[in-house]
Fold this sequence. Notes:
Blueprint: E1 5-6, E2 11-17, H1 23-34, E3 40-43, H2 49-60, E4 64-67, E5 71-75, E6 82-85, H3 90-100, E7 107-110, H4 121-129, E8 133-135, E9 143-146, E10 152-157, H5 163-171, E11 179-184, H6 189-201, E12 206-209, E13 212-215, E14 224-226, H7 231-244, E15 247-251, H8 265-271, E16 275-279, E17 282-286, E18 295-297, H9 302-311, E19 319-322, H10 334-344, E20 348-351, E21 355-359, E22 367-368, H11 374-384, E23 391-392, H12 405-410, E24 413-415, E25 417-423, H13 430-441, E26 444-447, H14 448-462, H15 466-469, E27 478-481, E28 484-487, E29 490-491, H16 499-509, H17 512-529, E30 533-537, H18 540-544, E31 548-555, H19 558-569, H20 573-589, E32 602-605, H21 611-623
Parallel strand pairs: 2-15, 3-14, 6-7, 10-11, 18-19, 22-23, 25-30, 25-31, 26-30, 31-32
Antiparallel strand pairs: 1-23, 2-24, 3-5, 4-5, 7-9, 8-9, 11-13, 12-13, 15-17, 16-17, 19-21, 20-21, 27-28, 28-29
Helix pairs in contact: 1-2, 1-3, 1-6, 2-3, 3-5, 4-5, 5-6, 7-9, 7-11, 9-11, 13-21, 14-16, 14-17, 16-20, 19-20
Amino acid sequence: MTDPRPIDPGRVARGRIRPPGSKSVANRLLPLAAAAATPSVIAGLPDGDDVRVMVEALRAAGTEVLEAEHWTTVVPRPRRPARIDVRASGTTMRFLTAWAATQSVETTLDGTARMRERPLGPLCDALATLGVEVRCAGGYPPVTVRGPLQGGEVTVDASTSSQFASALLLAAPGAASDLTVRVADPVSVPYLAATVEALGSFGIPVDEEPDGWTVGAGPYPGADLAVPPDASGAVYAWGAAAVTGGDVLVEGLDSRDGSQADLRVLDALEAMGCSVTDDVDGIRLRGPSTLVGIDSDLSDCPDGAMAVAVICLFADGPSRLRGLSTLAVKETDRLVALATELRKLGAEVAADDDSLQITPGAPRGAVVETYDDHRMAMAFTLAGLRVPGVSIADPGCVSKTWPSYFEDMDRILHPVVDVIAIDGPAGTGKTTVSRRVAERLGRVRLDTGAFYRTATLLAHRLGVGPEALAGHLGGHRFTYDDGVMRLDGEDVSAAIREPAVTADVSAVSAVPEVRSAMVEAQRSWVSSSGAAVVVEGRDIGTVVFPGAVTKVYLTASPRVRAERRAREAGTDVDGEEERIRRRDELDSSRATSPLRPADDAWILDTGGMSIDEVVEAVADHHLNR
Length: 625
């Protein structure tokens, strides 16, 4: 992708997303696996450019890397002299400079023009202290090293990048004897914790010192490991929820995980008014109605700070972000780049060598330059969710860490529709509640279940099964008006409630082609009505209208629902309960749009509640959301 990519505003971020595996973790595990005594298997390795560069670099140095669909096997082999092009990957340049220095073969590492501007001097100085032959003109790439790496003790200046210290720690098991790495003036300290955790995952002995760590030298076995989702990527999904007032669950992460530095961004977002909670499946962030300005030290999470800077465009006052000095030596000078592009979008920005002062102004659209920097592209996408006319230049640069970034984000971004979505299993009173809530709030009501019942009635009349029905739908009209469901103009409101239809509607609803046709009909109905709507069904909040302003999921025990059905129909309670359980199983296990609450739905157990109480509860929830 080279043309600017326009970002569609007016959408809300709702749903769940799982970013690719963490590049930061992957690029620590790979060189450790390549130096192990036996093969390792790593699951969840991301497919971004940075990890691809690391894999190719290890192969160039002799390591065998075997890639399968879900895991990668790393087979250590004798090192060979190599000239390695790390392109724009800073972790590959720094980590492999030290890794290569453990062997008595010559290795040269070089990269892009920008890489030749990124400092390497403190690492080269530390390696020279440990007996490594190092050629690194002026302290910048290209660099040539030849080991062996001696053990003992070394102090490394980490005031520019913690990666210098991480590189030494990752190489330490290959030193001639135990190595103590003392770290002076470290920045981005959580990344050092991530390095120590990576060492521990291979069983390598690590002892914490007052100002560093001692790593045991000697052979260690390979390991079977998994790369967690990338917290740095997750920041943009949470950021989308923050700026749109949405609700996003990022799967596979835990806020107590100390190994991914960008989880610290959550503290800043909470300070801006967002709600952050740990869920059994990951971390959920809900955006506020109004974001507030902050004064925050983001030195521990400089990558995530970029998203925060863009989110500050939409705060109700100025913000000051501190601890940003390391941004100047990243893929681009991110401090300068952020200030320049934020000003394009209408903000007043004051910048120095460690901070940004951001005062929101009248927002305006612009083509945002990305400077071949993936995080610039990802961060400024958030601005386009609120500001019309924002386009991202060179959007393909996201391939460095998240090649499918735009496509994945689109899956959680939905048009905002003035819909109250009421979902739930059979027998929870959805039909009555939705009708009465619509009356209570002066809204139009749509019964989506009536569409599926009408499709089932059509199948009966045509004498075809659920799978064959899809081929007949195009020749028939499904219309709904003032509570009346019509098939080709005929009022079928009563016919679709017959027991035979009820018995077969789940099987018909489970056919993907039928659901697709009905969903399109329902969306078209809401769009053409131009009204505020109450919609009820079984997948309204999850599939049909994920951008609904309010989502409610009604539930009750099968027994309670059976008793209600039995009173209405004068039937046997036990028989009704068996039918309801069977219906629940079919609805919740279907492959397409299974019955489940939306991640951001309000779940209301109606057992023990009267219809009046349920209606008032739903109406109050909507009005006070």
